[in-house]
Galactose oxidase (Canna indica), 558 residues
Amino acid sequence: MMTRTRTRSHAATFSFLRPLLLVLAVLSAPSHATTSTGTAGGSGGYWRLLRKSIGISAMHMQLLPDNTVIMFDRTDFGPSNVSLPFHRCSFGSSHLALARDCTAHSVLFDLPTTTVRPLTLLTNIWCSSGALLPNGSLLQTGGFGDGDRTVRLFSPSVRHSDWVESPSYLAVRRWYASNQLLPDGRVIVLGGRRQFSYEFVPSDSPSRRHVFQFPFLVETWDRDAENNLYPFLHLLPDGTLFVFANDRAVILDAAGNRVIRRLPFLPDGPRSYPSSGSSVLLPLRPGAAAEVLVCGGAPRGSYQAALNGTFLPALRTCARIKPADPNPIWFMEDMPLARVMGDMLLLPTCDVLIVNGAAAGTAGWDLARDPVTSPVLYRPDSPVGSRFDVLNQSETARMYHSTAVLDTYGRVLVGGSNPHNGYVFANVTFPTELSLEAFYPPYLSAGPRPRLLNAKAEVGYGEMVTVQFEAAGEYYSACSALNLEVVAIAPAFSSHALGMNQRVVVLPVMRAGWTPQQFVYEAVVVTPPSPEVAPPGYYLWFVVHGGVPSVGVWVRIA
Ligand SMILES: *[C@@H]1O[C@H](CO)[C@@H](O)[C@H](O)[C@H]1NC(C)=O
Ligand SMILES: *[C@@H]1O[C@H](CO)[C@@H](O)[C@H](O)[C@H]1NC(C)=O
Ligand SMILES: *[C@@H]1O[C@H](CO)[C@@H](O)[C@H](O)[C@H]1NC(C)=O
Ligand SMILES: *[C@@H]1O[C@H](CO)[C@@H](O)[C@H](O)[C@H]1NC(C)=O
Ligand SMILES: *[C@@H]1O[C@H](CO)[C@@H](O)[C@H](O)[C@H]1NC(C)=O
């Protein structure tokens, strides 16, 4: 139904371009249509080791708009495998983090060169949250111990940039909280261990830091296992927030501080930390209702059982809901592989990749077994029953404290895994992982990639903008039904099976056609209509042609 509607509206748009269409038939069939056969879409993908060691274990990860990736673990893990420049660690430093050892617990990984630069952290950043601000600086909130009220900024645009920390910025301690960038450019920081509240950063004034009580987090707190930490947060296109904890969700009007809707219970068990499932807001398409997907988790009792040495099978179910539906229901599906601590990533093709995690146990120190090393692809628009594909497996177990983000090249960076309270490399089933891998999804072997040649560096809301892209001649003539999509992707802050702020906005293509240059085409697309649909900031734009995405180009929406 959705597909048909879209096709019709595009056909109408294109009717005045008939001469072009004879050659360049741009249809809006689901982007996997041409890749769903053979190795291209059915199975496959491959892994590459980018670095055997980045010196730390990538427990938190965020792609930045200068094509670096910032990663960090924790400052009290003991000496990492990357040293800080000596001058940063004066002997007897008043900062515990530097006095302990002169090693880094945060690094900046440069995508083009795969080099690593150590960064300096003064307070403990462990199990924290983050969001890329509209100006491209990373805002990071909370942590543990001396860092649990710290707000940190990292500004990639600044030369030789390093962390800038503001201890005691948060009104209360936030450990295991979640963040979401809001339409007004502020960030909501919600939850955390023994924190049944939320607050906003930047706060209204340094002296007046409001904490908003949020009884939903009391109600979803399990006495013996919590199961409501790192809540799933999604900004819906009407500006309200979808908040999920444990086994249920509410719609929060954060500005008005009120819950405006309760959604039905999700059957089959808890999905939040330590029963960590994962969740994404499915790609937003003009005219289509927003939908949330939740996959995996661990059954109730799993945490206590794991403490006792019994590792219960993880949940196999995924559930989808349209929060704005008059009668919302969870639509249930079975994954081919059960999984706890999976990371879910939105891909430029509008599919979802589920990667990392385990088939038994829960999150927590050494509480999981049976690593699931095969990523699974989920195609939200395919018919029920043919949405999942099991892909090529990694050689590395990625257990507790693993991460995954989409990178500028359309790959998935995968790092971390440390189920130990320190760096442990020997004599354990799952040693601390310092490696960084890239998974190349099947679309990167599915044919020549289009190349996005120009996109404006900055655009406004609801604007028509022209993008030019190049595609190989043979590729064009070989395709009977060419399809084209342009998507804007907000980069995620990855930690503990969450991709905070992850978002795909499909930009409607109004026209497409030749340019005088051979193999160069142009498309007129409409930018997102409002900051509720796409909060201001940096997005990776990909042109996806015949199911194959280009390399991403950064565009700031302001
Ligand atoms: C799986 O990955 C390996 C190693 O990267 C590669 O040789 C193989 O072709 C891949 N298999 C599929 C089905 O893509
Ligand atoms: C980390 O450093 C230690 C001590 O230098 C070394 O033994 C170990 O092999 C290193 N581990 C990795 C994964 O690089
Ligand atoms: C980005 O915005 C934040 C919050 O307003 C501000 O503190 C920071 O200095 C800005 N960064 C840059 C590089 O301007
Ligand atoms: C864990 O073991 C203790 C002691 O044997 C027992 O009392 C408790 O019921 C067990 N809990 C679970 C969830 O298995
Ligand atoms: C691992 O176990 C072996 C055999 O028991 C022992 O020789 C070695 O010292 C242990 N290594 C570490 C790092 O504990």
About this structure: The chain is about 10% helix and 35% strand. The chain has a mean pLDDT of 89. Residues 448-557 form a domain with the Immunoglobulin-like fold (CATH 2.60.40.10).
